[in-house]
Each structure stands twice: as structure tokens, then as C-alpha cells.
Amino acid sequence: MNANNYVVGVDFGTLSGRAVVVRVSDGAELGSAVHEYAHRVIEHTLPGSDVRLGPDWALQSPQDWIDVLKIAVPRAVAAAGVRPEEITGIGTDFTACTVMPTTADGTPLCEQTPGEPHAWPKLWKHHAAQSHADRINDLAARRGESWLPRYGGKISSEWEFAKGLQLLEEAPEVYARTERWIEAADWIIWQLTGVESRNICTVGYKGVFQDGSYPSEEFLAELNPGFAGFVGKLATGEVGDKVNGTTLAPLGGLAGRLTAQAAAWTGLPEGAAVAVGNVDAHVTSAAADAVRPGQMVAIMGTSTCHIMPSDQLAEVPGMCGVVRDGIVPGLWGYEAGQSAVGDIFAWYVDNFGTDGHERLTELAGKQAVGEHGLVALDWFGGNRSVLVDHNLSGVIVGQTLATKPEDVYRALIESTAFGARMIVETFEKSGVPVEEFVVAGGLLKNRFLMQVYADVLRRPLSVIGSDQGPALGSAIHAAVAAGAYPSIEEAAAAMGKRTENAYAPDEASADAYDRLYAEYRRLHDFFGDGRMLHTLRAIRNEAH
């Protein structure tokens, strides 16, 4: 490798895919391109049909992902002004628990039966499997399954097993035809290399793989006898072992080489290194050079994922998971999250905030803390951490006839900051210290929001030095896979970027927010049992 080598990182998000060309020597981003998905999120009817979807459904089209390779990657290379033959590797990341049924050769079932909803990939925010997750959690708790505490006591409706059980029970014929149940993060690598693999990140966090094994066949059969063989649709075995033609692959590893077909799609050289698949949030840690114990990275966009390496293993209530080697090899990787953050602000502006984000932010920023007299719960997309209940819903308390749009907008921003503080405090009370809070993602652009977070958290915020955190992180992993660096840590130190203490808390505002946070906690505890919010959701679903 020399200073003139380059790698490509591709980030497959919720609404679009983006590619960035990065110089291996110093992480300089030389060119990028974005491709908006033609189908975006499929939430109401299937493409080209009148087949309606139920409440809390969210699907995607695999063709949109292939189009990112065909369109965004060549455009990024052209924008960078580098010769394709100088590109030595490509890395990708995906939204986690975007999971799909395929045949044994990787053909998506939605290509065979496009009129069947369950044949399509279920996006991360498909929450229609909550009842299935509840059954998994109840049975695991009764049986004392050893893996359950590794997920804070509950697995999510977003994850592989909950969605797989929903598939079995709601579309058994599709389940029977499903030869592979695979994360999109691994499926895209399959398309690039022709080699099927499973990355340890999604396998651990979303596939309930702990201490070398999945949940037992006996456990799965007790959920539903037809579910007993579900693991056969996944990869099994120890990390690095090949079983049934699949491999559990370490992060930063070489998944394979670019095939002739994938080279034709992307315009990259055939045989270029392809890094092991990864998750958008987890790969961003490398982009922020935040791969050391105690560095919590909050990737704030439509939702927020909180990712942190640690040298300590602990049981943190409501965490999304703790996985050995889940962020970088050799450390425990913790994950928590908030199911909706930017989505909340977008919902409000799209439906009620005619002034738009910038004007509402400007007006909200002129208020004193607490001036609006409101407090809200950030559960508009359910609660991922620490309650792990996607049937919870948003709450706004304190509105009067004098309440203005900017009041509600500010209260919603504050609610997400309170949710983040709840997560940080839960980690620290469990003996897992948060030494540095690093922010990445699209919401970095809102300076007012960042200051609110610093004040609510009562700690400085560091910020990533890239607008394309996941794509840069994937490029860093590609550099490791291509042999430019011996480890993710060394590649991150050379190619990652962050500004420490970019936002400092204001003491007076922090004191005022402590009072509001106390009320948030009271609401959190009152509504967190779900009795009222679950009933309202059930009434809505029956009416639907």
C-alpha cells in the first residue's frame, strides 16, 4: 500500500445509499455521491400493487440497494477524480436488523412472489413483530436462558428471531420456502463477492448469538414446533468456522474479492478486497476514532444508536446487547438506542410545523429552559432502550391554549435528550462508565439541538469530523481488509476524525434541565408499564 491507494465506503441507510472515496493514508474524503431509493420505505402498499400492509410494517426493496452500487459508487469515483485501478478495497454498512428471506443462492423471495408482503425485506423499523418478541422474552425469562441478560433482559421486535417467528406464523408457506434468513448487511456482501458470510456484529446483536451458539432448538420448539429448525436458515458455529457453507466473520476481515459482475456494477477493479459486512452505527466508531473503552458514540439521525466499546462485561438493563468483538476485536461492544429521534422532528414539521425546521429551531432557541411549560416522552417510534417496548407511544404533557408550535418542537428535542441521558445513567449505574460522549449523524447540523444535549447530559460533547460517518467507517474497514493497516484501531487513528469538547454544558441551563428531567423520569415510570399506551394502540389496531 502507498499514499496513492484509495478505498470506497458505502452506507446503505433508511432512505438512500451513499458512497465515498477515501485516501488510505489519512482518511481524506475525495468524492461522494448519494442515490435516493426509488421505493424509499414501503409502509402502506406493496410496489405495483394494491396489497395493503398492516400497522407498524416497514419494508424495503433489494433492487434499491443494487442501484446504489450501480449509480452512487461510479459517481463517487468520478467526483474523486481517481483512477478505478487505484482503488484497492470496498466496505459497506447497513441498517441493522433489516432482514430478508432468500433462496439458497441468495435470490430474494420478493422477486419470486412480489405480491406477498412477507417475501420482502423487513426494515429495521418494522415493529409488527412486537407480540412475537414478547413471547420470546417471556419464555426466555421463565426458562432462565443465559443469553437473555446479554440483551438487557429483553430482545426487540426489530430483531431476526422476532421477525422470523412472525414470518412462520403469519406466512408459513413463505417460511417454508425461506432457505436463508439473512441480514441485508450480509446479503450485499454476498452480491459483491459471490460468497455467503455472516458478520459477527449483526449475528451477535440481532441474531442472539452468544458464547458460540444461538438459542437452543428446544427453546425454539417451545415457542412453536415449526420454529425448531430456524437456526438452520442462519449461520452456526464458532467465529471463523465454516458450517453449511457460511462463515461467522470478524470485523475488519476480508469477506472476499469483487466479482466480475460486481465490478461491472460499480466500475471498480475485479478482485478488489471486500470487507466483512457491518452495521451503520457500529462502523461509525472507527470514523470518529472512538474505538477505545468508554467512548460512547451516538449516531443521531432518523433514530439514534448508542455504541460503546468496553473492557468490562456487565448486565445493563434495557441495553440492545453486549457482544464480544462486536465493535472492534478484543473488546466488548455495547449497544443501546432510541427508535425515533429525527423521525419525531420530521413527523411534527410534516404535519403541524408549517414554519419548517430552521424557523422552529430559531424560535425555540430564543426561549428560556422550561418557558414552554411542557415535557414529552420520546416514544413516538416505541422505546428501544431502556424499556425495550415498541408498543409504547409518544406523550406530550402541559399543553394549553397558549402553546405555540415552537414550544412543542423544543419539548420534542428535549425529550430525545432526556432519553439519551436515561441511557447514559443506566450504563453508569450498571458499572460501565461513559468517559466521552461523541456525536455523529445528520442531526449534528442543528447546533441548538447539540447544545440542548450538552446541557441535559451535563457533559461536553465531542463531534465526528465527517458528514459521512458510516461511509467513512466502512472505508476504514475496507483499508484493513485490503491490508493497509493491521487493525481497526490503527486504521481509525490514521483515517478517523473527531473534535473533542465541541459543545460545553451551560451550568445554569443544566440546572434548569435537571428539574425538567425529573418530570421526564416521573412520566417515564408512569407510562412505562404500557397499560394505557398499549390499550390505545390496541384500539387503534382494531379500528384499522
Automatic annotation (TrEMBL):
GO terms for cellular component: cytoplasm. One of its GO terms (biological process) is L-arabinose catabolic process to D-xylulose 5-phosphate. Its EC number is 2.7.1.16. InterPro entries: ATPase_NBD, Carb_kinase_FGGY, FGGY_C, FGGY_N, Ribulokinase. One of its GO terms (molecular function) is ATP binding. It comes from the Bacteria. Coiled coil: none annotated. The keyword DNA-binding does not apply. It is an enzyme of class 2 (transferase). Residues 297-482 form the Carbohydrate kinase FGGY C-terminal domain. Pathway: Carbohydrate degradation; L-arabinose degradation via L-ribulose; D-xylulose 5-phosphate from L-arabinose (bacterial route): step 2/3. Residues 6-197 form the Carbohydrate kinase FGGY N-terminal domain. The keyword Membrane does not apply. Belongs to the ribulokinase family. PANTHER family: FGGY CARBOHYDRATE KINASE DOMAIN-CONTAINING PROTEIN (PTHR43435:SF4), RIBULOKINASE (PTHR43435). This is Ribulokinase. The lineage of its organism: Bacteria, Bacillati, Actinomycetota, Actinomycetes, Streptosporangiales.
